[in-house]
C-alpha cells in the first residue's frame, strides 16, 4: 500500500510538533497508559491492522463508529452498548460495523491489563489506526477517557444527516465545538466510506419532488449511480463515496465534489455553499490533491473531535467488555 513516501520528511517534522500540541488536550494526555498498560496501543494497532488487511471495509466502519460515538453525548463508547433502545437501534446508526474488531482489541488488552483501558480509548485508537492503515501518517492520540453508562436511541438524532444543508451541518458541528474548517476536513473521511442507496436515491430520480435528478450531479456520472441504484431496486446496496479511490485515504474525495461526483446530498452541499466551497478548495491544488495539508488538518481535527464531552477521572467506568456496562 502506498504511504506517500515523497512526503515523509515534512511529515516527520509535523508528527513531532503535533505530538507536543496534542499532549495538551483537555482531560486526556498522550501516553496515559504508559505506566499501567504500556502495550495497550500496540495491541490495538495489531488487532486493527490484521482486521483491515483481511477486510478493508473495516477501516471506514471503525472510523464511522468513532464519529457516531463522539457526536452523541461525547466520546464515551456509548455507541458500543447493546440494548433494545440503545444508540445502535437508531435509524441514523443503521449499518454501523466494526464492533467485533473493537471487542477483539478489548479482549486482548484485558488479558494483559484487566480493568485498566477504557473502550472509549480503544475506539479512539482504533479510529486512528484505521486511517493510518489506509494511507495517512500516524499521529498521537490523547487517552484517559472513561466509558459512559447511558446509551439512548433518541440521542442519535444529533448526528449529521445525509440530506443536511451546509448550514445545518455547520450548526451541528458547532454544537460540538468544531468549526467550519474542521467540518470540511472531517467529512473528508468519506474518502474511504460507502453509503446505502437509500441515503441518496432521491437525488437520482426525484430530487426535491421535481421528478428529475439533482442538477448538481455530473451528467456523465449520473448513469453510473442510476445503474448501481435503480429507482425501485434494492436500497441496501452500498456505493463508494469516493469513486475510484475507496480504499485509499486521500483527497480525491474533494476533487470528486468539485466535479459534481459527490454521492451524498450533504457532501455536495459543501461544494455548492460559498463558505464551505472555499475550504474544500484548499485540498485541491491545481487539480492535484494537496495530501500534506489534508494529513495535518485531518489529524488535528480528529484529536479535537476525540475530546468532545469526554468523561475522565471518576466519571463513568472502565468496562470489562465493551457492549455492556459492568
TrEMBL record:
Positions with a binding annotation for substrate: 160
Site for Transition state stabilizer, residues = 64
Can you state which reaction this protein catalyses? Answer: 2 a phenolic donor + H2O2 = 2 a phenolic radical donor + 2 H2O
Record GO biological process: hydrogen peroxide catabolic process; response to oxidative stress
Q: Which residues bind Ca(2+) 2?
A: 191, 242, 250
User: Where is it located?
Assistant: Secreted
List, in alphabetical order, the Gene Ontology terms for molecular function in this entry.
heme binding; lactoperoxidase activity; metal ion binding
Q: Which GO terms describe its cellular component?
A: extracellular region
Any Pfam family matching the protein? peroxidase
Q: What is its EC number?
A: 1.11.1.7
Q: Which chain regions cross the lipid bilayer?
A: none
User: InterPro entries, alphabetically?
Assistant: Haem_peroxidase, Haem_peroxidase_sf, Peroxidase_pln, Peroxidases_AS, Peroxidases_heam-ligand_BS, Secretory_peroxidase
Where does the secretion signal sit in this chain?
A: 1-27
Active site positions, chain numbering: 68 (proton acceptor)
Q: Which residues bind Ca(2+) 1?
A: 69, 72, 74, 76, 78, 87
Query: Which residues does heme b bind?
Result: 190
Disulfide bond sites: 37-113, 70-75, 119-322, 197-229
PROSITE patterns, per database record: PEROXIDASE_1 (PS00435), PEROXIDASE_2 (PS00436), PEROXIDASE_4 (PS50873)
Q: Where is each Plant heme peroxidase family profile domain found?
A: 27-326
Q: How is the cofactor bound?
A: Binds 2 calcium ions per subunit.
* Family membership: Belongs to the peroxidase family. Ascorbate peroxidase subfamily. Belongs to the peroxidase family. Classical plant (class III) peroxidase subfamily.
Q: Which PANTHER family match?
A: PEROXIDASE (PTHR31517:SF84), PTHR31517
Q: Which function does this protein serve? A: Removal of H(2)O(2), oxidation of toxic reductants, biosynthesis and degradation of lignin, suberization, auxin catabolism, response to environmental stresses such as wounding, pathogen attack and oxidative stress. These functions might be dependent on each isozyme/isoform in each plant tissue.
- What protein name applies here? Peroxidase
The gene is ssp
Amino acid at each position: 500500500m502506498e504511504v506517500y513516501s515523497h512526503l515523509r520528511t515534512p511529515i516527520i517534522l509535523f508528527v513531532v510538533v503535533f505530538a507536543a500540541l496534542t499532549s495538551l488536550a483537555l482531560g486526556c494526555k498522550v501516553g496515559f497508559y504508559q505506566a499501567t498498560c504500556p502495550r495497550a496501543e500496540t495491541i490495538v494497532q495489531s488487532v486493527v491492522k490484521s482486521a483491515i488487511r483481511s477486510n478493508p471495509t473495516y477501516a471506514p466502519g471503525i472510523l464511522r463508529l468513532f464519529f457516531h460515538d463522539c457526536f452523541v453525548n461525547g466520546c464515551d463508547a456509548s455507541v458500543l452498548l447493546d440494548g433494545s433502545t440503545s444508540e445502535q437501534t437508531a435509524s441514523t446508526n443503521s449499518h454501523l460495523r466494526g464492533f467485533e474488531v473493537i471487542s477483539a482489541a478489548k479482549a486482548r488488552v484485558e488479558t494483559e491489563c484487566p480493568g485498566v483501558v477504557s473502550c472509549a480509548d480503544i475506539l479512539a485508537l482504533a479510529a486512528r489506526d484505521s486511517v493510518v492503515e489506509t494511507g495517512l501518517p500516524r499521529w498521537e492520540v490523547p487517552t484517559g477517557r472513561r466509558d459512559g453508562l447511558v446509551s439512548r436511541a433518541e440521542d442519535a438524532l444529533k448526528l449529521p444527516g445525509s440530506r443536511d444543508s451546509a448550514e445545518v451541518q455547520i450548526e451541528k458541528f458547532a454544537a460540538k465545538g468544531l468549526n467550519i474548517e474542521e467540518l470540511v476536513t472531517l467529512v473528508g473521511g468519506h474518502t474511504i466510506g460507502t453509503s446505502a442507496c437509500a441515503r441518496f436515491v432521491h437525488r437520482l430520480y426525484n430530487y426535491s419532488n421535481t421528478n428529475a435528478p439533482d442538477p448538481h450531479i455530473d451528467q456523465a456520472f449520473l448513469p453510473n449511480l442510476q445503474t448501481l441504484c435503480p429507482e425501485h431496486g434494492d436500497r441496501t446496496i452500498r456505493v463508494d463515496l469516493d469513486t475510484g479511490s475507496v480504499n485509499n485515504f486521500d483527497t480525491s474525495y474533494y476533487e470528486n465534489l468539485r466535479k459534481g461526483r459527490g454521492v451524498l446530498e450533504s457532501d455536495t452541499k459543501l461544494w455548492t455553499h460559498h463558505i464551505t466551497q472555499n475550504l474544500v478548495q484548499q485540498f485541491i491544488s491545481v487539480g492535484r490533491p494537496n495530501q500534506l495539508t489534508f494529513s495535518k488538518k485531518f489529524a488535528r481535527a480528529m484529536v479535537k473531535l476525540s475530546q468532545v464531552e469526554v468523561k475522565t477521572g471518576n466519571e463513568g467506568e472502565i468496562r470489562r467488555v465493551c457492549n455492556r456496562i459492568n
